[in-house]
Amino acid sequence: MAQPALVIDGLSVDFGGFKAVDGFSTVVDDGELRVVLGPNGAGKTTMMDLISGNTRSTDGRVTMYGKDITNHAEHEIARAGLGRKFQIPSVFRDLTVFENFEVAVTKQRGVWGNLRIGLASTEREKLDYIIDLTQTGDVVDKRAGELSHGQMQWLELGMLIAQDCRVILLDEPTAGMTQGETYRTSQIITALKGQHTIIVVEHDMAFVREIAEKITVMHLGKMLAEGRIEVIENDPKVQDAYLGSGGIH
């Protein structure tokens, strides 16, 4: 049996008596695409902060592919293969799209010097794949700061792929997108399934329906429910706390 990508066991964080995440546990399989739902204040983003090292937990444990990463520094967790995309993209705005991808793919060899040397053939092949996947071929020579909101999101997602992140955390990746951009984002994320382990926190229910396999629902820092979409949307506890009777639509 394949080793899980992430095992989260009894994870908690206490902010002056307020438990933002309270004994949360789940197992995310290798190559799985997991969607995390819940009302505002449910603890979703804080949970991702704890996994990525942005916030220190007060109890519990996180392992990634069998390695304990609990309360490790962010850069150590990133080096172990975890990448995170926030709502606001973090890219080099004065560089072109291609140069941003180039920085990401040459990161292991010392970025700035290697940009002058050029890409190895395997790196060039990887970038060709990423450019095709993210549909950024028509803007590769444009400065990142000139991109549309959606294009900038795809650029940052492509940079995580270029860095060979085994586990990718996406915090509301479609926030502020048009309907067309949202659909394209669903295509990109679905294409990554199996090659990367992906956890998506999202509020757009139409988008969730496009991509979701297994859903975790959080409420008041705890696990409320977990399962396939048809189970979750018919769960009375989830309907009462979050979805209402209309389900995911």
Mean pLDDT: 90
Characterize the main sheet. Answer: 6 strands, mixed
Would you identify the regions where 5 or more consecutive residues have pLDDT less than 50?
none
* Helical percentage: 25-40%
DSSP strand content: 15-25%
CATH class of the largest domain: Alpha Beta
* SSE class: alpha/beta
CATH fold node name of the largest domain? Rossmann fold
Helix/strand order: EEEHEEHEHHHHEHEHEEHH
Termini separation: 35 Å
**Number of beta-strand segments:** 10
Number of DSSP helical runs:
10
Can you name the CATH architecture of the largest domain? 3-Layer(aba) Sandwich
CATH homologous group name of the largest domain: P-loop containing nucleotide triphosphate hydrolases
The quaternary organization reads as: single chain
- The rounded Rg comes to 18 Å
CA-based shape: globular
**Please, how many domains?**
2
Describe the structure using short key phrases.
249 residues; alpha/beta; Rossmann fold; 2 domains; six-stranded mixed sheet; four-stranded antiparallel sheet; 10 helices; 24% strand
Report on the structure:
By secondary structure, the protein is α/β, with parallel strands linked by helices. The chain folds into 2 domains: 1-81 and 166-249, Rossmann fold; 90-165, no CATH class. The protein contains 10 helices and 10 strands. It has helices at residues 44-52, 74-79, 97-105, 111-117, 121-134, 149-162, 179-192, 205-211, 229-232, 236-243, and strands at residues 6-15, 18-28, 33-37, 59-64, 67-68, 82-85, 167-171, 197-201, 214-219, 222-228. The strands form 2 sheets. The chain has a 6-stranded mixed β-sheet, sandwiched between helices. Strands 2-1-4-5 form a 4-stranded antiparallel β-sheet, covered by helices on one side. The mean pLDDT is 90.
